[in-house]
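Recap from last week: sequence in, structure out.
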Amino acid sequence: MLVIVAPGQGAQTPGFLSPWLEIPEFRDRISAWSEIAGLDLIAYGTTADADEIRDTAVAQPLLVAAALASFEVLGLTPDLVAGHSVGELAAAAIAGVMSTEQALALVRERGKAMAKAAAVTETGMLAVLGGAEDEVLAAVDKHGLTPANNNGAGQIVAGGTLERLDAFKADPPAKARLIPLSVAGAFHTAHMAPAVDHLRQAAAEITPGDPAVRLLSNADGAVVATGAEFLERLINQVANPVRWDACMATMAAEGVTAMIELLPGGTLTGLARRGLPGVKTVALKTPDNLDAAREVLK
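Predicted structure tokens:
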């Protein structure tokens, strides 16, 4: 059983689109989608530096476009599909909840709204690696932070104000390693509440279709049966924690045997190697990975 997954913000690196643009179909897609995104996605994916593509309003459309273009080039139909954070928009398009064009228009608005919300208060995110999960969650709560991502495999991301993050760093949970994340704000926390209203307005014109492929939700790892429910979950997810641990638990329960992570791959397959032992994984980083991905079920 094959699951295809789309990565979230932070997976982008300078120049990651460059080798893919040698594929005419891929280049044509990215070029056409630049108009919908209101961004020169080719420039951002090839010549822009790390600071430029860290901008939330840039990173989110760039990631969704890259994932969807690599999915089209890959040419496989999954049994299950999921996306991490903004990757849920790519997953929604793959499953048929919305068109690719609708997903790109919606992620454009999502990125702008989250960037605006992040500018209201100085906030950030901190990855917590290792430690006992209950102790980590207790420490996060003690310092008034939110477990914005529970990624499984011993990785939890805390989000909140810089002041509270500093206090957390001074009093970390036992046997845990803390890594500050280079993000614009505390995504998937209450600080993103203003972006929820904006996204709901932007999504009002979409009449969602029901998933043609089994589609997992970041909210709780559930397989969502209707497009209307998934769209509502996707909107609310902006200000609520990502439960990738629950998504991986569902993958295991569903009997997943192989995972392909769309461009720019690496993060989610890395989690799967620890959280889904025995599952074959392929991350699409360059076009050289396409053959291995197409052979992953053999």
